């Protein structure tokens, strides 16, 4: 498959990252106006992508990229089609407004430059995710969104709640990311196809592969954790510890939509399987209803909106699980409407907090006269979220009911879930839009004021766009809805719903939703108390379960560490040599390479003499009553090996071995004279015998292993390679030196670093242990002299 090297498209992908690089300097030099400059980066990227809109509308994907790791078939490859274009539009358009909003919302002295850099990094990561074509590239950007969201959620890292929310989001979504990686690798190896384009062009290759079921389960797990499906939803409300611009962006167009994008992308590959048809409606329906119910329990506006986001994500998953053409069309429309409405309402929440000093719905009221622009934006956002005409959310809701209202059991259940969830979300939308602005103004809010244009511009524009998108619905369908639908449905589909009364079951269900939502709005206080009482009676929940799991993980890690790392050198030595001995013996026995009759090598008399010296040194080490004598005798083994090197014609290697042995023995002897250790080994025989047996098994096993190796035909390829290239490449005639300095230069450098580190540690240990007795003796002398009281 051919990929273009289109510089403009790469520039569009890179612009958010470039903006992140210049963000700190821009804020330092231009203060709040720097946000306007930084907003030009996503605007520029969006302008570049719009230049390709004609080809996108023609349903011709644009592929661009280059080889990244050719030996593994990995490409840094991207695909611009209708689905990725629609998501990219939301990411860049809402992202630009969030950047502007951040300039007015974030106070001075709050490290705004770093905050803007994080936002733009997050934007670039999400843009790369929806454009990625290669499976490995997709995973890398998927994990980048988790890392950058961690930085944003924990931005106020001085607060424990922010740190906990960031860690929880990273753990949950990171765990899902690992599952996704496993699923993508299984898909890649099972089909032999490494990109989404190849998979979409041959969907049967994945469906008929032997890895279809496990790979799909793992991919769904990754998508569910990212898009906060029950019971993985717990990270999303706790992410509200982030500053409001992060909440507005994360909940509308970025991280929570990543799982939805992935499901839409793989729909042609798995959308008609049994697992898909069962798991998605089940998880989505439960998430829709429970998320909407939990939203009614909250009193913080951001938390109310956060739980409605969970409910909306559940609705999108349920629609994709239904899998019909109209259901996927409804998911596309609802995705667009929800993104605009939710970004608008989150910005409204931040505006209320900024202008009134609180987000508690119970303490707010009467702000209509104080904050008229924010009130107007809240009405538009709530109407879109509730699906009222003439907002785009109305078109989406009509399509949702047209997709669920099917005369079978699944249709009845999904319709009930959709009506209940939408009614609850409509009640929450009314609470957010009306409760803070209507009624009497509390005495403590006399100083409430309208926020700056940088704050109210974003939500107002989003509300107006939601209105215009419905009024000019055919234009919206031309650029967004129609191009997004074919990749999801794997076929052409014309979306043509427009404003007007759509007579039928959908209209009836819409009236029921509005009526039920108004009733729930009027009974909101009682609903909140009832849900709170129910949750208190249940007691346990996934959020508490996460804390228990993390505590259990820490305890388990501590226990394992205490067992594997008890702080005793003798234990480490036994374990290390036990593993080596077991590996050598098991390998030889398993492969049948254990010599039946070891063939002793033919040795000269002086070589036998050296072996005798080695054996004598071993006996001295084993039976010595003094540690110092044992250490000095230990050097005999190395000196004997050095003699063998010399006799075999390697004087330079022999000299190196001599120096190493002399240095080792000298250092060990020095340490022994400075440290206060027992002069002799006083261990009982019950400890000596097992270790002696382990040593004997190790020596015998390694000896037999070397004999088995030397009895095999000698492979000269490596020797010939070094002989051929040592001079031509490394310009050295001494092959051993060339190997150490050039071919294994990094390895030699590492060995030198280890020796230096070890020497520094020994020196520190000697100084510490040597200074303690002196201090103790000095204290005793001073006591004897009467300078200190006992």
Description:
The protein has 790 residues and is mainly alpha-helical. The chain has three domains: 1-271, no CATH class; 320-538, no CATH class; 720-730 and 737-789, no CATH class. Helices cover 75% and strands 2% of the residues. It contains 32 helices and two strands. It has helices at residues 7-30, 33-50, 53-57, 82-105, 112-131, 135-153, 160-191, 196-201, 203-207, 212-226, 235-238, 244-252, 255-270, 274-297, 301-322, 325-356, 372-386, 392-404, 409-434, 453-471, 473-489, 505-522, 524-538, 542-564, 569-591, 605-623, 627-647, 651-674, 685-710, 717-728, 735-743, 745-784, and strands at residues 62-69, 74-80. It has a two-stranded antiparallel ribbon with strand order 1-2. A hairpin with a 4-residue loop joins β1 (62-69) and β2 (74-80). The chain is elongated, with a radius of gyration of 35 Å. Mean pLDDT is 86; it is low at 785-790.
Protein topology:
Elements (H helix, E strand, L loop, with lengths): L6 H24 L2 H18 L2 H5 L4 E8 L4 E7 L1 H24 L6 H20 L3 H19 L6 H32 L4 H6 L1 H5 L4 H15 L8 H4 L5 H9 L2 H16 L3 H24 L3 H22 L2 H32 L15 H15 L5 H13 L4 H26 L18 H19 L1 H17 L15 H18 L1 H15 L3 H23 L4 H23 L13 H19 L3 H21 L3 H24 L10 H26 L6 H12 L6 H9 L1 H40 L6
Antiparallel strand pairs: 1-2
Helix pairs in contact: 1-2, 1-5, 2-4, 4-5, 4-12, 4-16, 4-20, 4-21, 5-6, 6-7, 7-10, 10-13, 12-16, 13-15, 14-15, 14-19, 14-23, 15-16, 15-19, 16-17, 16-18, 16-20, 16-21, 17-18, 17-19, 17-20, 18-19, 18-20, 18-22, 19-22, 20-21, 25-29, 26-27, 27-28, 31-32
């Amino acid at each position: 498959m051919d990929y273009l090297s289109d510089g403009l498209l790469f520039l569009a992908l890179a612009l958010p990252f470039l903006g992140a690089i210049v963000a700190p300097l821009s804020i330092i030099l231009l203060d709040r106006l720097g946000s306007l400059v930084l907003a030009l980066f996503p605007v520029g990227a969006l302008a570049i992508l719009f230049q390709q809109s004609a080809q996108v509308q023609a349903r011709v994907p644009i592929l661009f990229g280059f080889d990244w790791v050719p030996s593994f078939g990995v490409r840094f490859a991207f695909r611009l089609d209708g689905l990725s274009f629609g998501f990219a539009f939301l990411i860049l358009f809402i992202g630009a407004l969030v950047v502007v909003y951040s300039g007015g919302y974030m106070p001075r002295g709050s490290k705004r430059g770093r905050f803007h850099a994080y936002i733009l990094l997050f934007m670039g990561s999400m843009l790369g995710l929806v454009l990625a074509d290669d499976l490995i590239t997709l995973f890398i950007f998927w994990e980048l969104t988790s890392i950058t969201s961690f930085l944003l959620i924990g931005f106020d890292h001085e607060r424990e709640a922010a740190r906990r929310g960031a860690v929880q989001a990273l753990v949950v979504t990171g765990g899902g990311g690992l599952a996704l990686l496993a699923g993508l690798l299984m898909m890649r190896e099972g089909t032999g196809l490494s990109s989404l384009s190849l998979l979409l062009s041959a969907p049967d290759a994945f469906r008929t592969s032997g890895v279809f079921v496990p790979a799909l389960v793992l991919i769904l797990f990754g998508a569910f954790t990212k898009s906060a499906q029950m019971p993985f939803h717990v990270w999303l409300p706790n992410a509200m510890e982030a500053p409001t611009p992060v909440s507005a962006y994360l909940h509308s167009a970025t991280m929570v939509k990543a799982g939805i994008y992935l499901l839409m992308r793989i729909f042609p590959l798995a959308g008609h399987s049994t697992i898909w048809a069962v798991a998605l409606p089940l998880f989505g329906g439960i998430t829709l209803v429970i998320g909407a119910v939990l939203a009614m329990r909250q009193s913080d506006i951001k938390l109310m909106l956060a739980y409605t986001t969970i409910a909306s994500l559940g609705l999108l998953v349920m629609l994709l699980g239904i899998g019909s053409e109209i259901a996927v069309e409804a998911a596309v429309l609802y995705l667009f409407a929800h993104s605009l409405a939710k970004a608008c309402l989150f910005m409204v929440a931040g505006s209320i907090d900024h202008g009134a000093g609180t987000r508690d719905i119970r303490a707010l009221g009467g702000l209509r006269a104080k904050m008229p622009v924010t009130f107007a934006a809240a009405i538009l956002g709530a109407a879109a979220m509730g699906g009222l005409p003439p907002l785009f959310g109305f078109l989406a809701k009509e399509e949702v009911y047209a997709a669920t209202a099917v005369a079978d059991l699944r249709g009845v259940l999904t319709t009930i879930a959709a009506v209940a969830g939408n009614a609850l979300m409509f009640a929450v939308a009314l609470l957010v839009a009306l409760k803070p602005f209507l009624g009497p103004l509390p005495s403590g809010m006399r100083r409430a004021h309208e926020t700056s244009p940088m704050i109210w511009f974003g939500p107002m524009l989003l509300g107006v766009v939601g209105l215009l998108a419905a009024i000019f619905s055919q234009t919206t369908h031309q650029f967004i809805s129609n191009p997004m639908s074919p990749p999801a449905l794997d076929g052409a589909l014309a979306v043509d719903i427009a404003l007007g009364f759509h007579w039928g079951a959908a209209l009836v269900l819409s009236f029921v939703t509005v009526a039920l939502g108004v009733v729930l709005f009027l009974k909101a206080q009682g609903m909140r108390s009832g849900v709170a009482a129910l949750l208190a009676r249940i007691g346990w929940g996934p959020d508490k379960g996460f804390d228990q799991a993390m505590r259990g993980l820490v305890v388990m890690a501590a226990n394992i560490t205490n067992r594997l790392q008890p702080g005793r050198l003798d234990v480490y030595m036994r374990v290390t040599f036990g593993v080596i001995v077991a590996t050598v013996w098991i390998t030889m026995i398993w492969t049948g390479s254990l010599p039946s009759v070891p063939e002793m090598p033919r040795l000269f008399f002086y070589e036998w003499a050296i072996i005798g010296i080695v054996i004598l040194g071993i006996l001295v080490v084993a039976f010595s009553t003094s540690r110092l004598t044992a250490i000095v005798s230990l050097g005999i083994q190395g000196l004997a090996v050095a003699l063998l090197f010399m006799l075999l014609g390697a004087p330079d290697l022999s000299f190196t071995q001599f120096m190493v042995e002399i240095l080792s023995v000298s250092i060990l002897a020095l340490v022994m004279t400075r440290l206060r250790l027992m002069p002799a080994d006083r261990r009982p025989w019950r400890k000596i015998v097992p270790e002696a047996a382990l040593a004997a098994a190790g020596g015998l096993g390694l000896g037999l292993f070397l004999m088995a190796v030397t009895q095999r035909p000698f492979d000269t390829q490596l020797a010939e390679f070094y002989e051929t290239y040592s001079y031509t490449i490394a310009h050295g005639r001494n092959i051993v030196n060339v190997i150490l300095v050039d071919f294994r230069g990094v390895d030699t450098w590492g060995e030198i670093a280890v020796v230096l580190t070890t020497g520094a540690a020994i020196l520190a240990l000697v100084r510490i242990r040597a200074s303690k007795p002196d201090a103790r003796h000095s204290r005793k002398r001073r006591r004897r002299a009467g300078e200190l009281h006992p």
